[in-house]
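Hey, weird one. I pasted the Tol-Pal system protein TolB sequence into the form twice and got a warning about non-standard characters only the second time. First submission, copied straight from the form history:
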Amino acid sequence: MRPCDLPPTSPWISDTDASLLATHLGRRMLLGTGGGIAAGILAAPLSALAQGAPAAGPGAAEITVDQARTAPIPIVIPALGGDAGALVSSVISGDLGNCGLFSPISGSLPVGVPDFGTYKSLGARALVSGSATTGGGGLRVEFRLWDVLTGQQIQGTAYTAGAGDARKIAHIIADVIYERLLGEKGYFNTRIAYIARSGPRAHQTTRLAIMDQDGANSHYLSGGQWLTLTPRFSPTSDQLAFMSYANNRPRVYMLNLATGRQQLLGDFEGISFAPRFAPDGRAVILSATRGAGSDIYSVDLVTRAKRQITSSGAIDTSPCYSPDGSQIVFNSDRGGSPQLYIMSAGGGDARRISYGNGVYGSPVWSPRGDLIAFTRIANGSFSLGVMAPDGTGERIMTQGFTVESPTFCPNGRVIAFCRQTAAGAGGAGFSSGISTVDITGFHERAIPAGGASDPAWSPLNG
């Protein structure tokens, strides 16, 4: 993305618009700146190695996610041999260990049918075996997953790809292990779009960036000339929606990740911000300023037709669709303070769902449909929590000087968010990074992405 690709805009932003954006963007604006196999990878099944070790059937997995939360699954993941094999094993161990549901164990690589007694003595419940070979610019990884207690082969697959695809193959294998042992889709072969931050606290450079979900393979998508915020992934295509202050006028843009082509989304008289895609990927819902308030609109991505959804006279912002596309949750101060509301995706009466102490913002619907994550601000402190769509069962998962911008992983089990620390004199001690926490409120960990904010999790294989 080059600055010259941005369409010309009026070189100003009014005090009213600046106030609206500060309300939407929270403390980081006020204090900070002024399923399938991946493309190119072939997979082929591997048969069981011996009659004494039959392949387990589809129903063989006996461990559930809830059981794994109580006692993470001990799994032996030996190095598969060679530099490529060591990398594959390391990434698999990192993926499974970082999710908090598995306890990776190092061990020797078995040849042929494993001696399961050896691995039982290590306390293992599952075992990975296989090999990784390179040649002619290609990579072949053979992978087998074993149930140590029954001696059964649960999965056997060979992956063939380019020599540079070792990490991607490892993420795919980790997803297979997760699904076979826990009974639901994994989320390791995904990416996170975010805002990379650098420079002094009061004058930070912001760049649109993207990385693997574990923090690897990070790279910039924009040059940092303009303040850029709130990237959002399309659920169906390789696109991002985001807000850019190009030519000092904040508006929503679309970026095609495959071609690098960028274009303005919607022709609004004021500024546009807070974009999110519809579940079918055919529209984007966003906020646009109107006088001293803002309304929610949807923009059809084929016809570019706009449809106004709210007209309360208040600040309506941060809209997010339910997974089935029938409802939206959003933030509004129509009742006197910023709170969360739910309404039909087509508009109409809105129902307030947040009633805790403080003000609420940044709502995002879980892809499972059972939870809405949010940021709550009370007594000068931020909290990150979840509640049911009817407003019941509110739970706070983590707190801090600033914790905001929640985004769910594709299976709804983990939330990534931005955590910032307070700044001292001259900005000393300030940090901004991306962390994850599971929906039970346990196993919080930082993603090694450097200065970062505004995470947005991709769909599976995104």
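That's the output from the first submission. The warning seems to come from a hidden character in my clipboard, not from the data itself. The longest strand covers residues 152-162.
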